[in-house]
């Protein structure tokens, strides 16, 4: 049995805490909201984020970061990407040697273009902890909390760290693979949210399965193009955190990114959509960051650019689709083969 702190009690933090509790670890779930903490203790439910799910009776809902992290072997950061820096600052005084830092968040920071593990590393500089592991893959919290079979990847540059995370989480319904490609795993998890917005927009416009399959496939092509330039292993994108997460997020009604896109496709404005959602829609901020990254590295990302134009410049989604369909004629694989061979020729 290990002692584990889960920081962030939204849908994903709560579902991961339940997996860890099922594995008989000593789990402490922390939320920054006092009223949410009280509600979870009183009702034994997390009504806003996972309605109808009864929390395990032995799951500890704690009062403070200090209580959450006391003597723990691992912390699992599961707050929205925009709250990672702030949460790391709160965590910093409680770090100790041999503490494994795992995160389950999916995003890229605009302007700095940092991945989650890079932000964590930056914020925890000068402190002692073991390593950072990213946990990512096709895993809607709603299904994990019902113990439906789910597979994810634990990625760390240090294989041993990924293996510790694998051992902590793996059970009968939650299968964990390891990977050393943390760049690819984090980029796959973050960038698929942009394409999921696109899939939602396409469905909202009334287009069918052909359009969605095109978005998933060509979306994967542009994700692997930029990610390979940024140092990822291209093979990661045929894995769970690549095509796996892309499929689940583009096709599931559980996906907040798909649902937000769907409303955009039906003509709603971004502000209205986000108010209506009331939950984290990571693809919006990641679209901004990725648009900037594509410009910086001169990588063609036409789908991401189109979605960015819809979200931030009020472009009509139908005009964006027309523009995508009328791009210059091209060979399907030429670009990615060139990028892959550049990478492997060094
Ligand atoms: N929901 C899911 O099925 C999955 C979500 N993720 C990722 O997990 C991360 C968290 O997402 P969800 O749990 O789904 O979000 P959510 O919208 O369900 O909940 C967000 C939680 O973060 C808390 N929060 C907001 N601002 C905060 C701050 N400044 N400091 C501390 N806590 C704060 C909220 O109170 C809430 O408890 C995201 O990056 C998401 O992409 C990853 C895999 C699956
Ligand atoms: O990352 C997820 C599933 O793997 C959750 O996606 P959404 O944030 O779109 O709900």
Describe this protein's structure.
With 346 residues, the chain is an alpha/beta fold. The chain has two domains: 3-180, Rossmann fold (3-Layer(aba) Sandwich); 183-345, N-(1-d-carboxylethyl)-l-norvaline Dehydrogenase, domain 2, CATH 1.10.1040. It contains 16 helices and ten strands. The structure holds 1,4-dihydronicotinamide adenine dinucleotide and 1,3-dihydroxyacetonephosphate. One of its GO terms (cellular component) is cytosol. Sn-glycerol 3-phosphate binds at residues 106, 137, 139, 192, 245, 255-257. Residues 3-161 form the Glycerol-3-phosphate dehydrogenase NAD-dependent N-terminal domain. Catalyzes the reduction of the glycolytic intermediate dihydroxyacetone phosphate (DHAP) to sn-glycerol 3-phosphate (G3P), the key precursor for phospholipid synthesis.
């Amino acid at each position: 049995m290990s002692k584990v702190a889960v920081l962030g009690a939204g849908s994903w933090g709560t579902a991961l805490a339940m997996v860890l509790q099922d594995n008989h670890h000593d789990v402490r779930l922390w939320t920054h909201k006092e009223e949410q903490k009280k509600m979870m203790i009183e009702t034994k439910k997390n009504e806003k984020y996972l309605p109808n799910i009864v929390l395990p009776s032995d799951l500890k809902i704690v009062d403070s970061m200090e209580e959450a992290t006391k003597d723990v072997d691992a912390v699992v950061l599961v707050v929205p990407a925009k709250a990672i820096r702030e949460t790391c600052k709160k965590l910093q005084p409680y770090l100790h040697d041999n503490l494994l830092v795992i995160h389950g968040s999916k995003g890229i920071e605009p302007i700095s273009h940092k991945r989650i593990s890079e932000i964590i590393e930056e914020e925890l500089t000068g402190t002692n902890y073991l390593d950072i592991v990213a946990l990512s893959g096709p895993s809607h919290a709603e299904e994990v909390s019902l113990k439906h079979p789910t597979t994810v990847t634990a990625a760390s540059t240090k294989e041993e760290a990924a293996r510790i995370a694998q051992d902590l989480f793996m059970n009968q319904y939650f299968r964990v693979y390891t990977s050393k490609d943390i760049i690819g795993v984090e980029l796959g998890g973050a960038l698929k949210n942009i394409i999921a917005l696109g899939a939602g927009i396409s469905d909202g416009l009334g287009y069918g399965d052909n359009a969605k399959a095109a978005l998933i496939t060509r979306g994967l092509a542009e994700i692997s193009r930029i990610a390979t330039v940024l140092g990822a292993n291209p093979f990661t994108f045929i894995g769970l955190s690549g095509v796996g997460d892309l499929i689940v997020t583009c096709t599931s009604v559980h996906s907040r990114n798909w649902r937000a896109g769907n409303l955009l496709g039906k003509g709603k404005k971004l502000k209205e959509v986000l108010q209506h959602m009331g939950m984290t829609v990571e693809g919006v901020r990641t679209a901004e960051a990725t648009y900037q990254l594509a410009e910086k590295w001169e990588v063609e990302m036409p789908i991401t650019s189109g979605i960015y134009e819809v979200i931030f410049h009020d472009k009509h989604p139908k005009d964006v689709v027309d523009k995508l369909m009328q791009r210059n004629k091209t060979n399907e694989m030429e670009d990615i083969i060139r990028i892959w061979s550049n990478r492997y020729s060094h």
